[in-house]
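User: Hi! I'm working on a homework problem where we have to compare a predicted structure to a textbook description. Could you give me the structure for the chain below?
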Amino acid sequence: MPLRIFNVLVGTWLFLSAFAWPHSSIQGVTALVCGALTVLCALATIYAPRVRYLTALVALVLFVASVASASRLDRTVWHNGILAIAVFVAALVDRSPRTAPDASDQLSREIRAH
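Assistant: Happy to help. Predicted structure tokens:
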């Protein structure tokens, strides 16, 4: 669970960083979209643990887009690259069990109890 919270916080920061300093248009859009998707995927991982692979894919897209759109290695490239690596690693390392049980889990526990 702490890694999911980490990805939510990093995604939120990535989204907000698009407004914190000047970005090229493609870097700004990439930061906005990848930040929002990181937050949504990290939250969805609570209910569907395999969504963490989608979170890792978003991080990979962020990394490739930030490197490909850079004319020089400026702070935005470094910033987005480091955040992409952090989200990628956190998404793949997070193997904690779900925290929100679904109805089928509760039903199977009730059946076993009887």
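For your comparison, note the following. Residues 2-113 form one domain. The radius of gyration is 17 Å. Good luck with the assignment!
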